[in-house]
Amino acid sequence: MILESIIIIIYTIALLIIFAYSLSQLNLLFNYLRAQRKKDDTPKFNFSDPEQIPLVTIQLPVYNELYVMERLLDNIALLTYPKDKLEIQVLDDSTDESLATTAAHIERLRQSGLDIYHVTRTDRSGFKAGALKEGLKIAKGEYIAIFDADFLPEPNWLQRTVPYFRDRNIGVVQTRWSHINRNYSLLTKVQAFALDAHFTLEQVGRNSQGHFINFNGTAGIWRKQCILDAGNWEGDTLTEDLDLSYRAQLKNWKFKYLEDVQTPAELPVVISAARSQQFRWNKGGAENFQKMLKKVVRSKHITAKTKAHGILHLLNSTMFLNVLIVGLLSIPMLYIKNEYAHLKPYFYVMSFFVLSTVIFFICYWYMFKNIYGGGLKQFIKYIGMFFTFFSIAMGFSLHNSIAVIEGHLGKRSEFVRTPKFNINTLKDSWKGNKYLKKNISLNVIFEGLLMLYFGFGMYLAFVVGDQGGDFGLFPFHLMLFLGFGFVFFKSLTSKA
Known about the structure:
About 55% of the residues lie in helices and about 10% in strands. The chain is of the alpha/beta class and about 500 residues long. The protein folds into two domains: about 1-30 and about 315-495, no CATH class; about 45-285, Spore Coat Polysaccharide Biosynthesis Protein SpsA, Chain A, CATH 3.90.550. It is globular.
């Protein structure tokens, strides 16, 4: 019974952590709904007065972006901000032929009157954080806007963001990501679904109540003084944006999130690219939990509620590890449930935790309705999308759990940027992209084995116990089977 007791304890702890996280999401939903009724009275610069228009530096950190550099530079050139108040830095760490073609393109833009510079380094120390820090040394602007290579801000983007810095306590203005290729495939739809939840429910829910949010690495703008006051960019985690965000807010800087300002971007269309992005984000989240936990807990000027939300925010990626633990142990728990009759009261109590899924379902529905509209037809569509998203998210749980464990253990790894494709429609092809990985990770094999493992769990529903089976966990095992199956087969077939 010792082994069974250990399994029960670990299983219960993982369920409790997931439940606590779901309650935090429910609280964010209440915050979000309240924020919708609240009028924004933030003071703003009056841009009809030229004296109030500040100098802005745009930083474009890039590394081997052959397929999207022309699109990026041409789009940035369309910004309607006064040219005498705008500086553009292309922070280019590239090592391939894109370095030369980018230099030529920048020279053409300079001849058109744009104040744009090609900033290169001899090494990639600090990766993206290092490039941003290097550019900051020579940046002329009081405010620093940052765009990754696949982002396409609207021409009036600066006019809609910079005015909020009239409030001298605001250190960052972050905008919402939108997706130019949302409907390209099931993979892009699932990614868009997850990001939409973050950029509506979570960012608004936290920001509206003064809880910590994060600059999302791109499509936002910093006050230069805030960056320097918070200790400047550091490259000791894979999510330098989350790191600097927390250091700035711990220094009492306020962040302003603009849900209504959307910045279009491209989602990864190949699962290997999505994997590299997920690995970096989730490992970086765990690294920042280790780096920031004590600072958040010990902070004197933030409330207990803000601390709780901050801790759960930093633990966000660790939810994948808890989901994987619950999934792996659910099959032994099926045996335990049917072997030890005296534990029935425990399992009755544990069934309460299905409420976590119900809470997520309700929270994400408001996000979905906000984007697509309500009504019965949209609700039916949402049901399918929600369970598809949950299944595929669970299918990524092994991959992301490895990233999380590495982050918590302090294992260092290189910043692997997400390859871009310049994919907008179904007619566009990613085949032959030179930046894609050609090898298949060993993790894919384990994902295939987990697909079979949860297929076995579905079979057990028909044969365990003496009452003709136990189907309580069948839906959960079905979602895990489909999720790992999707990730496994996509990883095998989606090769350039």
